[in-house]
Specification:
It contains 8 helices and 9 strands. α2 runs antiparallel to α5 and α4 runs antiparallel to α5.
């Protein structure tokens, strides 16, 4: 099962790259679906899966836009549906309820940045994170991963209901203080008091790590709705490609019109998404098949103390004697 499914994954992935954008979502999703069967055969409790585990949340309103169309979770009684079985094999949560295509797309690492028009405030993107410890308080500085202008993430939108790895007791503000990344937009800082003496333990397991070139090294992942946990990036791509394949197959008029740059603001983002998807899927499947222990995350620790007047005077005397013009001390 493992060998046969991986061979089909490779063939379908190659076929998807030869297809035009109008039909590409279908072989792309089925390529990932066969890779999922291989992962379940290798790491799951049983090699057999039963059904997709996802479905379209049908609406009789034909005017609903593409990004507002919804996908619902349809778990089987025994949890052997493909989506749930692959999630279990990866140790990932699987979302509950339903979520819009826009929310799923925005929460997917490597795809979120491509949706560069104004976003719904309930659609939460992954955030690049720096971990830190300061004055026995722990936290993370959060940055946007977007490479192009987009709606800014408001600090008020960062909550445990959409970013489940942020503790409910965390204080969210727009200050700095737990590490710094160059050339990216700072969004907010989340900080909280640790439960025990081992402050670093409070930070472990809160960020996603991937080795693929399409992803940042340390991401705070978001959930697709308020009732779900944040999923492994492979499961986010799974839900995203399933949604695109469903809309391409069963709503061809809506889908093809969304690909027309003269009629749709989504045309360029969709085409860019379908262009990067084969590499994104291949990288995540490789990582799942050959898991490696990730390198340790740096945790920045800062200790601050107030200098006395005598210590300041001695510091200035030594600096003046050495002529260190680059070392300027400002005091209040």
């Amino acid at each position: 099962m493992y060998s046969a499914a991986l061979r089909q994954f490779e063939d379908l992935l190659t076929s998807s790259e030869a297809a035009g954008h109008a039909g590409r979502p279908v072989p792309l999703f089925y390529a990932l679906s066969q890779a999922g069967r291989a992962l379940v055969a290798a790491f799951g409790d049983t090699p057999i899966v039963n059904g997709h585990g996802l479905g379209e949340h049908r609406s009789g309103d034909a005017t609903v836009g593409l990004l507002d169309r919804r996908i619902r979770r349809v778990a089987t009684k025994h949890g052997d549906d493909a989506f749930g079985a692959v999630a279990a094999a990866l140790g990932s949560p699987a979302f509950t309820g339903s979520a819009s295509l826009g929310s799923i797309w925005t929460s997917t690492p490597g795809a979120s940045d491509l949706l560069d028009h104004d976003l719904d405030s309930s659609w939460c993107p992954p955030l690049l994170a720096c971990l830190g410890v300061h004055d026995k308080r722990v936290g993370m500085s959060l940055y946007s991963t977007a490479r192009r202008p987009r709606r800014s993430v408001d600090p008020k939108e960062i909550s445990g209901s959409r970013y489940p790895r942020v503790p409910d007791a965390a204080s969210i503000d727009d200050s700095w203080g737990f590490g710094h990344f160059e050339n990216v937009k700072h969004v907010a800082t989340a900080s909280w008091d640790p439960a025990g003496n081992q402050v670093e333990d409070e930070l472990r397991g809160r960020l996603s790590r991937t080795r693929g070139d399409l992803y940042d090294d340390a991401l705070l992942l978001s959930s697709v709705n308020e009732d779900s946990d944040a999923m492994h990036p492979l499961m986010s791509w799974w839900a995203l490609l399933f949604a695109l394949s469903i809309f391409a197959r069963y709503h061809p008029t809506l889908w093809v019109s969304s690909l027309d740059p003269d009629r749709s603001r989504l045309a360029v983002p969709i085409q860019a998404l379908l262009d990067v998807a084969p590499d994104a899927v291949a990288a995540l499947v490789w990582e799942a098949v050959f898991p490696e222990k990730p390198k340790s995350l740096p945790i920045l620790t800062s200790y601050w103390s107030r200098l006395s007047a005598e210590e300041l005077a001695e510091f200035d005397r030594v600096r003046s004697k050495r002529g260190d013009d680059f070392c300027a001390l400002r005091t209040t």
